[in-house]
Amino acid sequence: MTHLTLALDAMGGDVGPCVTVPAALQALASNPGLHLLLVGDPAALHPLLAKVDSALLSRLEIVPAESVIASDARPSQAIRASRGTSMRIALELIKTGRAQACVSAGNTGALIGLAKLLLKPLEGIDRPALVTVLPHQQQGKTVVLDLGANVECDSAQLVQFAVMGSVMAEEVLSLRNPRVALLNIGEEETKGLAAIRDAAAQLKNTPSINYIGYLEGNELLTGKTDVMVCDGFVGNVTLKTMEGVVRMFLSLLKSSSTDVGRKAKQAWWLTLIGRFIQRRLAKRFGHLNPDQYNGACLLGLRGTVIKSHGAANQRAFAVAIEQAMQAVQRQLPDRIAARLKTVLPKSD
Amino acid sequence: MTHLTLALDAMGGDVGPCVTVPAALQALASNPGLHLLLVGDPAALHPLLAKVDSALLSRLEIVPAESVIASDARPSQAIRASRGTSMRIALELIKTGRAQACVSAGNTGALIGLAKLLLKPLEGIDRPALVTVLPHQQQGKTVVLDLGANVECDSAQLVQFAVMGSVMAEEVLSLRNPRVALLNIGEEETKGLAAIRDAAAQLKNTPSINYIGYLEGNELLTGKTDVMVCDGFVGNVTLKTMEGVVRMFLSLLKSSSTDVGRKAKQAWWLTLIGRFIQRRLAKRFGHLNPDQYNGACLLGLRGTVIKSHGAANQRAFAVAIEQAMQAVQRQLPDRIAARLKTVLPKSD
After folding, report:
1. TM spans, by residue (chains A, B) (predicted)?
2. Distance of alpha carbon B145 from its chain centroid, rounded?
C-alpha cells in the first residue's frame, strides 16, 4: 500500500474517543502505509494511547481541537459555531492537503453542511449525496444513494446521483457498465413522484448511464440493479428499515439457536449441535450485519468524507476508516469529476 | 358469528380466479356466518366450483362482470373505462348495500380511485389511506399508514392518518390510548420534511391523540409505537423493503437448515435434527412472513375496502378476506367518522 493520510474526527459519535481511538489503532495495525491524524481533545486522547506500541504511534498524530459538535445540535447553528471543533478541523486538514480524506461519526447534518462549505461541490453537482454499498442476495453489492444528505430532490439532482453512483459502482465494485435504477412505488412508467418521472426521462437519454428503469423497495437486496437512486428522505428511511429488520433477525436467530440446546432436556450433544448451527447461521448471515458496511461516503465534493454511524462500535468505525482508504485509492472525486464533464450540462 | 356478506373481485390480481376462488371457499368453510359475492366472468368461475360441497355453495353467489381492469393499466384511464369491470361491480355492491365490504387484489391505483368515487370519503378526510397491521418484536402489532394511496401528503392529511390509525389500533388491536408516531429521518424536532414538522405541531395540540414524536425506520418493528404515520410514497417503499428483507431471510434460513443435515456426511440423525431446527425456526419467524398479514385496509371512506397484494397466494388472499370481516365487525368506518367529529375541524 502506498502512503496515505486520513484525518479522524476522534470526538464525534455517540461514544467518541473510546471507540474512535481503538478503531484507529486497529486500522494502523492492519495497514502499514496508513498515517492517521486524530483530531480532538489531547487530554481525552492521550490516556487511550498510553500503552500503545511505539511503531504504531509513529504513524499517529494528535491534532488538538478545543470543542466538539453535539450529535443533536441543529446543523445550521452548529456550522456557524464550528470554528475549533474536531469535525471542522478534520475537514480543514483535507482542504489544506495534510489529509487525503476524513472520517467522522458526528452530527450528520453539520458534517454535510461543513464539508460542502469547506470542500465545495464538483462542477455539475448541486449538493453532495451520502452513498453506501449494500450486500445483496446474489453475493454482489449495490450502491445506494442518497441516504439523507438531501431530504427533497429535484430531477436534476437524481440524475447527478445516478452519475455518481454509476462511477462508484465501476470504481469500487469493479463493474463494467453498471445497471442504474430509480427507487419507486411501482415499475410502470406512470408511477411515483414527478421528480422521479422526469429523472427517468433524462436518464433514458443519457447513453453513458445504463439506466434499467424503476425498481421497488423489495428489490433493494435482490441484486437486480448495481445502483439504486432515491431522494435522501426515502433512502434514509429505507436503509434504517432494512437495518432494523436485519438486526431483529440476527438477534432472534441467536436466541433461537441457543434455545435448541436448552429446550431438549439439556442433552450435551444437542447443546453442541445447537452451537454448531448457530455459528453456521451467523456466518451465513454475517455479511448482512450493518456493522460490516458502516460508513457512508459523501460524494460530489472536491475531497473524500466518510460519515460513520453515530452508534458505531470499534469494528464498525474501523470499517469506515477502510472505506475512506478505498475511496482515496480509487480516486473517486477525480473520476466522478471526469465523468460529470462527459454527461452533464455545464453548470454555468 | 353474525351474518356478513362480502363482495370479492374474483378476477383481480396476478393470478385471478385460481387464487381468489379457493381462498373464498377456504373462508366460507372457516366462517359459518359468511356469505360471499364472487364478482367475475361466470365462464371462468364455474369450473372452479364444480366439485364444491353444496352447503358451501349455498353461501356463495356469482355476480357476473364482463371485464377486468388490468394490473398495469393507468389508473385514470382504467377508472374512465371501468363500467362492467369486476372491481367496479364489487365496489357498487357495497354502495347498494348488498355487501358490507369488498376485497380486491387488482390494480391499486384504480381501486383507490374508484373506491373514493363510489364510496366517498368521510367528513374531514381529504383522501383515503392504505393501512396495514404489522407484527413487531414485542409480540404485539403496529398500525402503519399510508402505504401508497397518496404519494404526496400535506400536514393535514398526515394528521388525518394519525386519527384513523389511532382508531384502528383501538378497535382492531384493542389498545387503549395507542401511541402514535411520525416516521422521520431523525428524532430531533428539526428533522425531516416541512409537512411532517407541521403535522407534529398539530398532533402535539390534539389531546385525543397520544402523539409520542418522530421515530426512524429502524423502529418500525421494535414496538415503540402502536401507530406509525408517513406519506404513501415512503410507506410503500418502507413496507416493500421490509418484506424483501424478511423474504430473503426466510429463504436463506430454509436453505441453511437443510444444509445442516446435508453437509454433515448425511448422518441420518443430523438430518433429522436439521429438520427439527428448521421447523422450530420457521415457527419462530413465521409471524413475520408477509403472507400472514396480507390485506391493506383502505380507511377514510363510507365503506370498507381491502386491497390484497396482487401476487397473493390462496392463503394470503384468505387472510385479506378475514381482514375485511374484522373491519366490518369492528365497524371501522363508523368509529373513524365518530372520532373525526371530535378531533378535526369541520371540512366546510
Report:
1. none
2. 10
Q: Cα torsion at A109, A112, A114, A117 (round to 10°)?
A: -130
Q: In the CATH scheme, what is the code of domain B129-299?
A: 3.40.718.10
Do A233 and B188 lie within an 8 Å CB cutoff?
no
Q: Amino acid letter at B295?
A: G
Kindly indicate the confidence band of residue A194, based on its pLDDT and cuts at 50, 70 and 90.
very high
Question: First and final CA of chain A: distance in angstroms?
Answer: 39
Cβ within 8 Å of residue A182, ≥6 positions away = A158, A162, A196, A199, A200, A203, A213, A214, A215, A228, A229, A230
CATH number of A4-125+300-338: 3.40.718.10
At A179, phi and psi to the nearest 5? Answer: -75, 135
Domain B4-122+300-333's class? Answer: alpha beta
Residue among B40, B236, B27 nearest B146 (CA): B236
Q: Where are the domains of chain B?
A: 4-122+300-333, 129-299
CB contact under 8 A, B74 and A284: no
Residue (of B81, B110, B93, B83) closest to B13 by Cα position: B110
pLDDT over 60 (residue B347): no
Taking contacts as CB-CB distances below 8 angstroms, the residues of chain A near B225 are none
pLDDT digits (tens, 9 = 90+) for A217-264: 999 889 999 999 999 999 999 999 998 888 887 777 666 555 544 554
pLDDT digit string, tens, across residues A175-186: 999 999 999 998
Residue A169 CA to residue A64 CA, distance in Å, equals 36
A185, A246, A256 ranked by CB distance to B237: nearest: A185
How many Å separate Cα B56 from the centre of its chain? 26
Nearest CA among A296, A294, A305, A295 for reference residue A121: A305
Instruction: Calculate helix-pair angle for B268-286, A268-286, nearest 10 degrees.
Output: 60
The residue of chain B with its CA nearest to that of A256 is B281
Residue of A nearest to B254 (CA): A281
ipTM of the complex: 0.85
* B4-122+300-333 shares its CATH topology with B129-299: yes
Cα B159 to Cα A44, B125, B182, B213, distances in angstroms: 46, 10, 10, 13
